[in-house]
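Protein modeling request. Please complete all fields; requests missing the sequence field cannot be processed.
Requester role: graduate student
Desired output: 3D structure, token encoding
Chains: 1
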Amino acid sequence: MRFSVFLNARTMSADADKQLIVDLEEHALLAGKLGFDAIFLPDHHFNGYMPVASDSYMFASYLAAKLPEMHFGFSVTSVPLHHPVRFVERINILDHLTKGKLLVGIGSGTTPEEMIGFGVNYKDAGGIAEENLAAAEALWAKKIEDAPVELTGFHKGCVLQRIAPHSYGERHARLMPVAMKPSSITRAAVNGWPAFIPAFTPPKIGGTDPFSHVKKYFTDYHGQLLAAGHCADTVADALSWTTHSYQAVHLAPTDEQAHAEMIEILQSYQKAVDREAEFNAKAESDESNKKTDQTNSALSEDWMATWCLYGSPQTVIAKLRAYQELGIGNILCGTTTGPLTTQRLAYANQTLRLLAEQVIPALK
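Delivered output (364 residues):
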């Protein structure tokens, strides 16, 4: 079982952005020192959720120079917000800089406020994501002598020669779909790529039995992956990176301490979410950008059961055994959830050390 760190902090004001970037670098370097497998970054804009994630590829390339053995991933890139040419170019460059240690999570996006900033309607996001991914595959496949690739969808363009640089390997970097829609499950399985395995089934985002959802989606993905006819190495690699994500992971020496500190973390996180809600509501005032799903308070039983992993090292090991036995290859740990104050960073580093010292050796 692999363990990866998800950098998912927030700032509450513009004057906090500078220190956030310094603190995220410190935290990522500690993760590298302690032996974590990967650093994952989200793709967010405008709202203070990971300000540096307005260009996660740029931040990842900076960290990659300092952590040459680390894998880097994206959880997830909102495909409709990226022109296919720039999407492919940046992935190829980072693929070279990481020497093939790249995992590009892909999705259609979740936040109308971010969509309208790029001129995309939320209701159109799924269709634009599909056409962008089809265009990206055509661009990756194009050779100089081939006919031009014409982009005629939401994003326009005509590529006459080829994408430069070429991919690092024979194939382009691994994409990681979210294994929720049948088409996304099939895309991952047919290509021999890993997938993100959801712990809920829309329209309800949360619940008290996340493992049943993980088992359902993983079983479907796993069956299709095995049926696709890949070689054993491709299957093993895909499964080793198939990911179950936690938005908030927190460890402490005892369960009681971990619970009390997690409540403190989530109270601060919920304040940040509530601040963002006013702007989300403005974006959703247009029917084309109305969301159809709802997320409970982070302090609710449903949210904590779905998105949180906390306790003593022994408790966390016990919780993860079922996921290991199912076949989940990678646990993605949101260690900086919420506003990244000095105390929050101390909690995050505490979690990294306890995971590295006790949990990872037990589950590797």
